[in-house]
Design goal:
The protein has 321 residues and is mainly beta. It has two domains: 96 residues, Immunoglobulin-like, CATH 2.60.40; 204 residues, paralog of FGE (formylglycine-generating enzyme) (Alpha-Beta Complex), CATH 3.90.1580.10. It contains five helices and 17 strands. The strands form five sheets. It has a five-stranded antiparallel β-sheet with strand order 1-2-3-7-6, with no helix packed on it. A four-stranded mixed β-sheet has the order 15-14-13-16. It is globular, with a radius of gyration of 20 Å. The chain starts with 13 loop residues before the first strand and ends with a strand.
Length: 321
């Protein structure tokens, strides 16, 4: 059977200041049941970074990562001309007749690509009050696999965030929202919006079913919390969610960029909501090692003054594509 794919060639020049790669002369050609994507690359990958191909079938509105291609993708790709990627079209009827845009990107070490998409959010407020569901649409972004660790924080900020120095691979804590923002800006990243955080915690577009906690309905599989630990733990030891993100439930609460408002999502822009324009408290999500299971629910919202610090509050970063 011959499948005819309509696609648009897109030349993409992507310069990453942090990663130092330039991709250009991107072109694509269908060959039977596969698409061959070629590109030129300038600049070497840093250790742990990966080359990836993403595509869009809605004129660049949303991009999805290609996870089943082979060729010059992943780690250890060398700079040069005419790098090639082969993408088989078997079982991909959803792209038949579509115009396809391709982009070549670098995924930095320790980050995962989160496909943009839609989801229905239904939050649990501070007083355990159920809030009606609201549709949210997000673009694609990169997110840290784990919470920022003590080691990572010290390498950038030149100091420990707390007096606890016995576990460099544990999440940094005792950081205020201002501290987290400062760190993120220094490395060219930012804090996630509340909508991005919840979408990623749910597993994004790769989630097959709803889970109460990030990656499972069984909290012990995915979270460090009050019933299974007496302190924070090294990151990445529990089961990840569908996106490969660790500790989105438990270990430490995570700061989001948004100001908190009880009813924000009832009036918010449905596309890439950024949070209220002003407020007195910032959003934190995910629960911690000092929380019971109720607060580790990924629908649970919480709030704190942005200058607040404690031993169970940390953060992770995101990066725009």
């Amino acid at each position: 059977m011959k499948i005819r794919i309509v696609y648009k060639l897109v030349t993409v020049v992507l310069l990453s200041v942090l990663n130092g790669q330039i991709y250009n002369n991107v072109r694509a050609k269908q060959d039977g049941l596969s698409i061959n994507i070629s590109y030129d690359m300038e600049g070497k990958l840093y250790r742990g970074d990966k080359v990836a191909v993403v595509y869009s079938i809605d004129d660049g509105k949303n991009y999805s990562i290609i996870i089943d291609a082979d060729g010059d993708i992943g780690a250890n790709v060398l700079p040069g001309k005419n790098n090639e990627v082969n993408w088989l079209l078997i079982d991909k009827d959803f792209i038949i007749g579509k115009i396809i845009n391709f982009r070549i990107i670098t995924i930095p070490e320790g980050m995962v690509y989160v496909d943009g998409g839609n989801y229905m959010r239904s939050s649990i407020g501070i007083l355990n009050k159920e809030v009606s569901s609201h549709a949210v649409e997000l673009g694609s972004f990169l997110m840290d696999e784990t919470e920022v660790t003590q080691r990572e924080y010290r390498q950038v900020m030149g100091k420990y965030a707390s007096d606890y120095a016995g576990c460099m691979e544990c999440p940094v804590e005792n950081v205020s929202w201002f501290d987290a923002m400062d760190y993120a800006q220094k490395i060219g990243k930012r804090l996630p919006t509340e909508a991005e955080w919840e979408y990623a915690a749910r597993g994004g577009a790769r989630s097959k079913s709803f889970s109460k906690f990030s990656g499972s309905n069984k909290i012990d599989e995915v979270a460090w919390f009050l019933s299974n630990t007496e302190s924070k733990q090294p990151v990445g030891r529990k089961k990840p969610n569908a996106l490969g993100l660790y500790d989105m439930s438990g270990n430490v609460w995570e700061w989001c960029s948004d100001w908190y408002h009880d009813e924000y999502f009832q009036v918010a822009n449905k596309i890439n909501p950024l949070g209220p324009d002003y407020g007195t408290e910032k959003v934190v999500r995910g629960g911690s090692w000092f929380s019971n299971d109720v607060f580790c629910d990924i629908s649970r919202r919480y709030k704190l003054k942005p200058d607040y610090r404690d031993t169970n509050f940390g953060f992770r970063c995101v990066k725009d594509i």
